[in-house]
Each structure stands twice: as structure tokens, then as C-alpha cells.
Design goal:
CATH superfamily of one domain: NADP-dependent oxidoreductase domain
Number of strands: 10
Number of helices: 12
Order of helices and strands: EEEHEHEHEHEHEHEHHHHEHH
Shape: globular
Strand content: 5-15%
CATH class of one domain: Alpha Beta
Distance between the termini: 33 Å
Helix content: 40-55%
Length: 338
């Protein structure tokens, strides 16, 4: 497994990261541990979780994922693992955090309490990468950046990052850190896939110029790019099969990922993968890794048989012809996720 640097930090990580957002609901603890073990054995040293997991957020399950990861972590040499987690963003908008009675915010109080809770559940005295899960563009960035810097100075966090952030928000946070002499974000964790290339419009250039690495999540477009939703299929237990029946925010999210345009683009990517002699999951994962602003691509699994196609992308470099064919789909079907 190749490694890459996180931003301008001293930390190098495997270029595939195992995400854990379904652990505790979509995958029970036994299955989750098997997935973690197989990932580690395949050469993955980078694992991502969050205080808000598993998803969809629910106070009944909040923190369960970190507890599972923490029990697994005790079976490994802590120094061999690069562990990332996240603090909930504000609960007054699109997403309501499942922690702290749904009163989450990106202020010193919440950031410090969130990390204390995560360290307790994970059974460790530090995390390698600590991230804000979603932003609050109406709040003072200075307060959050100073609080995060204090955690770095205390040795509880090695480096910091953000998630679901905009170009403006990323630059605002970096400017606040530079002005205050505080730790800077080394990473940004945003949605990025063959079906959602909006990151390339502006944020990619911010990353290049400011030395920030993208660690993209959902390289399979929420599972869409596996092909499992083609031809009207709604697999039992699949995330968007459930979300489409839940209404509200979950249904709206599902329709962003599963719609006529994403179905059409996925069909073409499946054909490209078949022509190249690889699975479409392998194609989508390898494509995500093959960008200069990407440090590590976050994948996910709910059962073991999903892993081989993901691991097959570890040492794969797509040919110029395959990359050109993928670009042609993007040109013909612009912004399939809106």
C-alpha cells in the first residue's frame, strides 16, 4: 500500500483509508472487527471515525462506532495506527448532532468536551487527526481554531482538519490560524467521486496552493457506483434503499445520490470498467486516488465480501485512455449529483 503525506504535516498514511460510519448499525461489532482486521492486514494504516457515528445520527447509538473502534484498537500497536475522528458541527442547520443533547456547536466548550468523549470511547490518549465534521459559517472561526490549537499543544491531537467545508470556509480558517499563529488545517474531508467532481471546480486549487490534502469520502457515490441501484434495484439493507423510505433529510440525500443522471453516468462507468477488465468499484476507488491533491481515499464496507474489489485498487494506476473515457462521461453528464 502506497503512502502519502497529510498536508504539510509529518504524518504519512496509506492512500486508502477505512471509514467506519456504519459500524454498530449497518455492520454489527463482529463484522466491523473483521473488516478492520482485514483492512489492517491489507496494509491500511489509516482509519476514520466520528463522535456522531453511526449514521444516520441517532442519540440511541451515538458513540457506538468509536467504542467498537476503541476495542479493536486495543488489539493493535497504537503507534501502527493513524486514527482520525471528528467533532460535530452546529445542530441548528441541515444536520442535527446526536451528541450533547443535540446542542452541538464549534466553540471551545463543545470541541474540548467532544475530544474528551472520543478519547474515552476510543481508549487512547491522543488522536492523530481531529476534524470539524461540518462548518458553521456564521460563527467566529478564531474560537474554533484556537481551541483546536490548544489541543495540539496539549499533545491530545497531532494534526487538525475540516470536513464538508467550502473554499471560503477553508481559506477563512487558514487565515485565522495564520493570524493567530495557531495550527492550520492539514486536511479537508469532502464528498468526491466520479459522480461528484465539484471539488475540482475551486477547492482543488485551494488545496494545491495552501498545502492542504483532500481525504475524499464516498468515492463510490454512496454505493451508487457499485451498480447496485441500477435498473430500479433497491437492495435490502442498502443505505439509500432505507433512506428513500425514511422521508425528510434522509430521503432528500438519497435522491441526490440516486437519480436519473447518476444512474446514466454509473452505467457508462460500468462499461468503462468492463472494457478495462476491472470491477467498477475498483475503477471508482483507483480514480479517486489518482489526483495530486488527494492524500488518502476513504472507503467503507458493511460486510467482508466488499473488500477485495476495494483492495484491488491499492496498487492500480488507471491508464490515460481510461481516465480520458471517464472525463468524457463527466463532460456529457455534468454534475449528476446536482
Amino acid at each position: 500500500m502506497k503512502t502519502r503525506r497529510l498536508g504539510k504535516s509529518a504524518i504519512h498514511v496509506s492512500d486508502i483509508c477505512m471509514g467506519t460510519m456504519t459500524f454498530g448499525t449497518g455492520a454489527d461489532e463482529a463484522a466491523s472487527i473483521r473488516i478492520l482486521d482485514k483492512s489492517f492486514d491489507a496494509g491500511i494504516n489509516f482509519f476514520d471515525t466520528a463522535e456522531n457515528y453511526p449514521v444516520p445520527p441517532d442519540a440511541k447509538y451515538a458513540g457506538v462506532t468509536e467504542e467498537i473502534v476503541g476495542r479493536w484498537l486495543k488489539t493493535k500497536d497504537r503507534d501502527s495506527i493513524i486514527l482520525a475522528t471528528k467533532v460535530c458541527g452546529p445542530s441548528h442547520g441541515w444536520i442535527k448532532g446526536s451528541m450533547r443533547a443535540g446542542m452541538t456547536a464549534l466553540d471551545r466548550h463543545n470541541i474540548v468536551r467532544a475530544l474528551e468523549g472520543s478519547l474515552r470511547r476510543l481508549g487512547t490518549d491522543y488522536v492523530d487527526l481531529y476534524q470539524t465534521h461540518w462548518p458553521d459559517h456564521g460563527a467566529r472561526y478564531e474560537e474554533a481554531m484556537r481551541a483546536l490549537d490548544d489541543l495540539v499543544q496539549a499533545g491530545k491531537v497531532r494534526v487538525i482538519g475540516c470536513s464538508n467545508e467550502t473554499s471560503w470556509g477553508l481559506m477563512k480558517s487558514l487565515a485565522a490560524s495564520d493570524a493567530g499563529g495557531w495550527a492550520r488545517y492539514d486536511t479537508i474531508q469532502n464528498n468526491f467521486s466520479l459522480n461528484n467532481r465539484r471539488f475540482e471546480d475551486e477547492l482543488a486549487q485551494v488545496c494545491r496552493q495552501e498545502g492542504v490534502s483532500l481525504i475524499p469520502y464516498s468515492p463510490l457515490g454512496g454505493g451508487m457506483l457499485s451498480g447496485k441501484y441500477q435498473n430500479g434495484a433497491r437492495p435490502q439493507g442498502a443505505r439509500f434503499s432505507r433512506y428513500l423510505q425514511m422521508g425528510g433529510r434522509q430521503e432528500a440525500m438519497a435522491k441526490r445520490f440516486v437519480n436519473d443522471k447518476t444512474l446514466a453516468s454509473t452505467e457508462r462507468f460500468m462499461a468503462i470498467a468492463a472494457e478495462a477488465g476491472i470491477g467498477v468499484v475498483t475503477l471508482a476507488t483507483a480514480w479517486s486516488k489518482q489526483h495530486d491533491f488527494v492524500a488518502s481515499t476513504i472507503v467503507g464496507a458493511t460486510h467482508e465480501d466488499q473488500l477485495p474489489d476495494i483492495f484491488a485498487a491499492a496498487d492500480l494506476t488507471l491508464s490515460p485512455e481510461v481516465m480520458k473515457a471517464c472525463n468524457a462521461v463527466t463532460k456529457d453528464i455534468l454534475y449528476p449529483m446536482g
